[in-house]
Design goal:
- The chain is 11% helix and 40% strand.
- The chain has 240 residues and is mostly beta strands.
- It has one domain: Lipoprotein localisation LolA/LolB/LppX (outer membrane lipoprotein receptor (LolB), chain A, Clam), CATH 2.50.20.10.
- Strand 12 and strand 13 form a beta hairpin.
Amino acid sequence: MSAQPNPIDDQEPVLTPIPNRAFPLGRVVGGLLVVALMTAAAAVMLPKSAEAKDAIGLNTSQKKTIEHIQTYLNAITTMRSRFMQITSEGGFSQGDFRLQRPGLMRIDYDPPVPVLIVSNGLMVMYKDEELDQISHVPLATMPASMFIGDTVDFFGDDLLITDFSNIDGVLRLTIQRSEDPLEGSLTLMFETKPLALKKWTVIDGQGINTTVSLLGPKFGESFDPQLFKVENRAMGGVDN
């Protein structure tokens, strides 16, 4: 049984594992977090001075297109969207997520998935609504750590571009950690007219494929700060 997090604000939270349910929570939420947190800021900045690292020999036009994608993503300050998530193991889920840079994110899964995920920019908090149990995971340990920083930088020193295509108005960009390709890969898919992020696919180190599709994303809205805090009913307080 997991230890309960410490409710006292000035003490560090206890790090506990994600509840071991039959539903594959780690894979389901992981696929969404990879890109939802991509534009979130944290304490560490990615290098900006490195040359582009790619395994496919990008030409000048392709590099300019990727820079254009970066500019598009970095212009996002807030984002709200419905999402649909499917895994290669047959898992299916839907829900809502909100993103506010720097570092704030909230993911609400639709029933029957009893999960709430909140990021405060340093910690990711998983709440099992049925058990009223909160688990804490350092943001830096998530797959999304490849994107931690104020900006999205596909030419960062620790990333490797492994595939790129622009076919029939659809851009696909695949990246992975250059120092540890066994961690898996991320493929982003964009429409080009106008440029818009539509979905992404994550392949983890075990070969599990997770695809997340955005449904009607909206940008530039204001969010209540309370959305990025987690209430623990049993402890009678808020964990943030």
